[in-house]
Specification:
Blueprint: H1 3-12, H2 17-59, H3 67-77
């Protein structure tokens, strides 16, 4: 922890329990905002990937595999019970 963070923590610990709870809630909320921004980036990347795959199918570049074939392949790779 940096010296600035240690100083801020020391000062925060001098606050009343209610004030510390408020500060903690604000700090946690700020981390959630970072997660939301990162999530948006992931969503954008998936949207681009879906569009890329759809264009490959529409252009005939990718024909895909029938679900029955995929299911049979997966079933045969599973251990027998």
């Amino acid at each position: 922890m940096s010296s600035q963070a240690q100083r801020i923590l020391h000062e925060a610990l001098q606050l009343s329990p209610e004030e510390r709870a408020d500060v903690a809630a604000e700090l946690l909320a700020s981390l959630n905002e970072i997660d939301e921004i990162a999530d948006e980036g992931v969503e954008d990347a998936w949207a681009l990937e879906i569009e890329r795959r759809a264009l490959r199918v529409l252009s005939g570049e990718s024909i895909g595999t029938d679900w029955a074939v995929v299911r049979a392949r997966l079933a045969s790779s599973l251990p027998k019970q």
